[in-house]
Amino acid sequence: MHYEDYRREYTAGGLSRDMLNACPIKQFEQWLEQSVRAELEDPTAMVLSTIDAEGMPWQRIVLLKGLSRGGFVFYTNYGSNKAQAIAANPRVSLLFPWNEIDRQVIATGTAEKITVAESAAYFMSRPRGSQIAAWASRQSRPVSARAMLEKQVQVLRDKFGSGEIPVPDFWGGYRIVPERIEFWQGGEHRLHDRFLYSRDGDGWSIEQLQP
């Protein structure tokens, strides 16, 4: 296959300054709602990029679980590679790749842990199987075989029975407080529309970028 020959035109629509909300979070909410209505497979999936203590970048897909206090919220094991990288360098980047509608959103900012109460509220809303999985997995640590993980899940099912499952003390959420958010709309002939919001005091400045 000749990869250099693979291309398509972006024809889903344009983006202009007068179409944007003055607040990037509200603009993001509008685009996310439109992505949901367009029945994208995973509209809340976002690529989280971190840099660890050794300066090594890494990316993985996580799910957006809320917007609060002007930030993007997701949950993870606090012993995971991503959490350790955030502890070393809290400056991160997010990418929402809404390829089916020729859009993407990139946000850069600082990750901070949310409160225990916020994490507990979300944990209790999760399906029971996901709650047990949070206890069973020491995320990012080696495992000799999947059977070992499945055995641990069964041990925890027996332990908790039908009772309430407590929130693990090694699990919780992060809020990414953005400093810059870029909205990208694909355009024909690679003349894409790009608008960058940057923090400006208590508000935001907006500038259009060349494609």
TrEMBL record:
Binds 1 FMN per subunit. This is Pyridoxine/pyridoxamine 5'-phosphate oxidase. It is an enzyme of class 1 (oxidoreductase). HAMAP family: PdxH. Substrate binds at R7, R8, E9, Y10, K65, Y122, R126, S130, R190, L191, H192. It comes from Halioglobus japonicus. Its cofactor is FMN. Residues 171-211 form the Pyridoxine 5'-phosphate oxidase dimerisation C-terminal domain. SUPFAM superfamilies: FMN-binding split barrel. Its EC number is 1.4.3.5. Residues 33-157 form the Pyridoxamine 5'-phosphate oxidase N-terminal domain. One of its GO terms (biological process) is pyridoxine biosynthetic process. Belongs to the pyridoxamine 5'-phosphate oxidase family. It catalyses: pyridoxamine 5'-phosphate + O2 + H2O = pyridoxal 5'-phosphate + H2O2 + NH4(+); pyridoxine 5'-phosphate + O2 = pyridoxal 5'-phosphate + H2O2. Homodimer. Keywords: Flavoprotein, FMN, Oxidoreductase, Pyridoxine biosynthesis. FMN binds at R60, I61, V62, L63, L64, K65, Y75, T76, K82, Q104, Q139, S140, W184, R194. Catalyzes the oxidation of either pyridoxine 5'-phosphate (PNP) or pyridoxamine 5'-phosphate (PMP) into pyridoxal 5'-phosphate (PLP). Pathway: Cofactor metabolism; pyridoxal 5'-phosphate salvage; pyridoxal 5'-phosphate from pyridoxamine 5'-phosphate: step 1/1; Cofactor metabolism; pyridoxal 5'-phosphate salvage; pyridoxal 5'-phosphate from pyridoxine 5'-phosphate: step 1/1. One of its GO terms (molecular function) is FMN binding.
